[in-house]
Amino acid sequence: MTLTWTDWEDDPSASDGTPPYIDWLRTVTFGGADTRDGLSLAPLPLSPMAARICGQTHRRAPLPGFARPGPDDSVSDDPLIELSWMPDQDCAVVGVIDSAIALSHARFRRIDGGTRFLSAWLMNGTWRRGAAVPFGRELFRTELDRLMFSALAAGGIDEGRFDRAAEASQYPHPRGDRRLDTHATHGTSVADLAAGFDLRLSSEDEKRRRLPLIAVGLPPRTSMGSSGNFLEFFAMHAVEYVIDRADRIWRACGHGGEGGFPIVINLSYGLQAGPKDGHLAVETLIRAVDRAAEEMGRPVRIMLPAGNDLRSEGAAVFDLGRGRPGRLDWRIRPEDHTPNYAEVWSDELPGDGGASPAHPVAVSLSPPFGPDGPASRGRHGQCATLVDSERPDVPVARIYCRRHDDAADCGTATWHRVGYILCTGPTLEEDRLYGAPSGDWRIGLRSDGDATRAFAYVQSDQSLTFGSDTGLVPIFAHPAFAPVDEAGRAIDVADYPLDGSAPRDTDTAPPMRRRDTLNTIASLCEARVIGSYRATDGRPSGFSSAASLDPLGDGRAAPTALLPGEDGAARWGVLSAGSKSGSAVAMQGTSFSTALATRRVALAMLDWLDDGRVGEAPGSEAWFETAALADEATAAWPGQTVPEKAGFGRLAAPASGRMER
């Protein structure tokens, strides 16, 4: 194997707006083709608001053929809304955007046994002619109820039979989604914590009636991408869908007048790497949604997780002043079945940078026992590729250079940044893949001008097969960074003494850091961003990500607040619904804290509606600040927190009707 880097050259994918993650996946995994193993990468339409933001109508996204319209099919403009029960004006809608949601679960039923879901969009479902969704399958309440009652068996609902009939579980297709046939799923647990109720408790009847749900079932990881390559595409569709269907149902119910149902949307997904300045396309869309809701006078609250990446060893900031170089190892693991990604971003630069701005920092990337390259700074729209002279047509690694700015919000960019996206192939060699070397890849950074800072992040990585661990997350490695203390305890951003004294900063070994690990799509201030704490003593959870002390652009300096993400040091996670009725499972992470925050806001919305919609609706930043102050005073937890980790502080979990552990 003789590896060489090409010089910077024009990147054809930049001219048509294809993101680097998508181009690299198509190059390495699909072999440059549009189809592979039952998946198609043919372009799909962006959601209407996303199309305006991105300046394009379509984008490549992998979905199986059965989930796509045929070449001669057209998507309907108006869905046929079929509801066996109409929600009243005193209802608030809870939107759950997640994977593998058990739609027939007893925690999501009405008192008469029917479903509380007004509609559900299963993005991996079979597309039906005349549907009003651009891919996948949409079901309204009447069809869901019919399928549920068709699955009656021995006085109960055969939920597995329902899942197969609704295509929430897909056995006939090799690319079908079968996660609901495991004991627990992320989506069911999140939906339960956000809006699940015990059918046996009559005290919950009114809450069940007044909190209907709209679900979006995200496709499997084979379509989302091992590194969340397509999360933005599907998430933007999902957010617009929830709001559109809630408003259409309001009108179909004949409620009329201004406003509509208050909406609380739970999107418990995220990314690890990115610009983190509040201006990704999905963040711009959320900001536009928030602005439109304010103008309409109807609240829409979008809840996002802070992320679980504080201990991921995947964030670094470099001080490149006075010509000092920066160096860092990017440790890529052997037998990894998925591509690996990292990003290196510049500081903010004034203006739009022109047609092809150069990155102010030069980057070099060298594989283990391989050459450094490229030798100079890249410009927007360029790429450099690492190839083996024996197989020059099969890339081993690539660096893309792309511009990022705030133009989508204000029309003309007031600032821009330039980023390098570093990509390698899987380290597992197989017939259709050319394995990249595993080990420490050396990243070198050098500033030739006035630039003094660069920001580096490792991207998320998950196995494409549910339950597998074949997708191995790389890390950064630096001799000055210690992941644990002398007693073997993982180090947090602060030590949180139990005597109530001020926490001491423990994140003090540059360039790597634990701060600035906040979920990349949760960097904007218009969404609520929720972290985790331990319910027994209030200690912020070690996995819960922290914001940067010096955020860039319009990024966040702190999450909004913390809610429980683990019951105690010896009681892992928080209890939630398993994938079938009557089962329970402990799940841990900020996704589940976010779901509890969604539940708390949704219940508070009902009180706000009872008061005649007077004053600011629950779920604003100010509302969380007030609630945190009150709950902190009541609980009297022994230790303090720090804002970049805890935001306004800790909120108690709302009652879920479950027995305490």
Structure description:
InterPro entries: Peptidase_S8/S53_dom_sf. GO terms for molecular function: serine-type endopeptidase activity. The protein has 661 residues and is of the alpha+beta class. It is 21% helix and 23% strand. The strands form seven sheets. Strands 1, 2, 16, 18, 19, 21, 22, 23 and 25 form a nine-stranded antiparallel beta sheet that branches. α4 packs across α5 (159-166), α6 packs parallel to α12 and α9 (231-252) packs parallel to α10 (281-296). The longest helix has 22 residues, at 231-252.
Fill in the CATH topology of the domain at 314-477: Jelly Rolls
Structural class: alpha+beta
- Helical percent range? 10-25%
Span between termini = 57 Å
Shape: globular
Mean pLDDT: 92
CATH class of the domain at 314-477: Mainly Beta
Specify the biggest β-sheet: 9 strands, antiparallel
- β-sheet strand percentage: 15-25%
SS element count, helices? 14
GO molecular function: serine-type endopeptidase activity
InterPro entries: Peptidase_S8/S53_dom_sf
Blueprint (SSEs and pairs):
Layout: E1 3-5, E2 9-10, H1 12-15, H2 20-28, E3 35-36, E4 39-40, E5 43-45, H3 48-54, E6 58-60, E7 63-64, E8 93-99, E9 117-122, E10 137-140, H4 141-150, E11 152-153, E12 156-157, H5 159-166, H6 186-195, H7 205-210, E13 213-218, H8 221-224, H9 231-252, E14 263-267, H10 281-296, E15 300-305, E16 315-319, E17 326-332, E18 340-346, E19 349-350, E20 361-366, E21 382-388, E22 391-405, H11 407-410, E23 415-424, E24 439-447, E25 453-458, E26 475-477, E27 528-534, E28 561-566, E29 574-577, E30 584-587, H12 590-610, H13 621-635, H14 643-646
Parallel strand pairs: 8-13, 8-14, 9-13, 14-15, 15-27, 27-28
Antiparallel strand pairs: 1-21, 2-21, 3-4, 4-7, 5-6, 9-10, 11-12, 16-25, 17-24, 17-26, 18-23, 18-25, 19-23, 20-24, 21-22, 22-23, 29-30
Helix pairs in contact: 3-10, 4-5, 6-12, 9-10
GO biological process, one term: proteolysis
GO molecular function: serine-type endopeptidase activity
InterPro entries: Peptidase_S8/S53_dom_sf
